[in-house]
Amino acid sequence: MGLLRSVVLAGGGTGGHIYPLLAFADAVKRHFPEVRITALGSPKGMENELIPPTGYDLRVIPAFQLPRSINLNLIRTPDRMWKSAHAAGKILDEVQADVVVGFGGYVSVPAYLAAWRRELPIVIHEVNVPPGVANRMGMRFTKNVAVGFPQQPQMAESLKDARVVGVPLRTSLTRLDRAALRPQALHHFGLRPDLPVLFVSGGSSGARTVNLAVAAAAKRLAHAGVQVLHVQGGRNDPFEVPNDLPVPYVVLPYLSDMQLGYAAADLMLCRGGAITVAETTALGVPAIYVPYPFSNQEQKRNAQPVVDAGGGVLVDNDDLTPEWIEQHLIPLARDRHRLAAMGQAASRYGRRDGDEALLQFVLEAVEKDR
Ligand SMILES: CC(=O)N[C@H]1[C@@H](OP(=O)(O)OP(=O)(O)OC[C@H]2O[C@@H](n3ccc(=O)[nH]c3=O)[C@H](O)[C@@H]2O)O[C@H](CO)[C@@H](O)[C@@H]1O
Description:
This protein is of the alpha/beta class and 370 residues long. Helix content is 43%, strand content 14%. It has 2 domains: 6-169 and 353-369, 3-Layer(aba) Sandwich (Rossmann fold), CATH 3.40.50; 172-349, Rossmann fold (3-Layer(aba) Sandwich), CATH 3.40.50.2000. It has helices at residues 15-31, 47-50, 79-94, 108-117, 133-138, 152-155, 171-174, 178-189, 208-216, 218-223, 258-264, 274-283, 298-308, 322-333, 336-349, 354-369, and strands spanning 6-10, 36-41, 57-60, 99-102, 122-126, 145-147, 163-164, 197-201, 227-231, 249-252, 267-270, 287-289, 312-314. Strands 3-2-1-4-5-6-7 form a 7-stranded parallel β-sheet, sandwiched between helices. Strands 10-9-8-11-12-13 form a 6-stranded parallel β-sheet, with helices on both faces. Helix 1 links the parallel strand 1 and strand 2 (36-41). The chain binds uridine-diphosphate-N-acetylglucosamine. Its EC number is 2.4.1.227.
């Protein structure tokens, strides 16, 4: 591909920014093995744990925190922002970047600034409503905005002209046949094939309320014959689960092979992070969403359309108690027909081609903006 020789990807902080970046990098590599791929990260983000094992070139630039509201004066203000932009610019020059693709997170801002000063094409991928502060700033420098979900353009003025491309997901997920992998997944976790599996994950950092509520309901779940596969989350406190339960309750600190979790799951209990929602729907996993109650209610907006489509259930953070689990979650986990219908509705909403669609959009942008 003559137009594309070097791509710089920017996005960091939590898994929600990094996994789409990596999935997109894989798509670029698959189609254009010769293209140089560089990821920009910040010193403390999860990118430092997640990107090096993939073999992609991760360059860390100095971090700075943007205020929650933005205006153009901001560009004049913090020295640290320009220091970061300078560091990003040096990398763009060194790798002779043809395009910067940003996924949000603080590290995206210096990348957008540096690309803008060099008049390089910029593409922004945004999965939340309202868009994150970093991407909102980037939108001042480019009209090439892609979004993960069909409702986003109607929900935010700044996204009204965005292209809906879906969310780039890992190929271990986009190529997953859940039914085929299920026996291996159950065996892997030491779960039984004859009882339903509740898969609990609070997103890349974990969710304390979810963890504590499910752990407190461990006995009720076990006595109802519901097995639990509980991922605590990368940056969350441990919790206690009784060790004499009659059915398996498996606790893991973090799960890199999420395909095994999704293959084992009959029902998921999760937050409403955008990438999690993209994954559960792409894979047709029925889910109970417990949106994170802070950060602008963005997670409720992610999950609501899936629930409206019949693909899941919403419960408020404060309502997720052991009693709620007993009265609502357990009956659902034991109702195969309802789960099957929810799973089908979820997969009608989801899509698996976000990596390819974003690549197509980036190629068009590079062609147009050069
Ligand atoms: C509290 C907060 O502000 N959360 C935001 C953050 O969520 P967060 O970083 O939790 O991101 P998501 O829930 O969207 O995605 C989590 C990702 O981590 C993966 N995973 C998770 C656990 C695990 O053990 N293994 C694993 O691989 C999931 O498969 C998924 O790919 O970014 C999202 C995307 O911008 C936002 O929508 C969320 O609102």
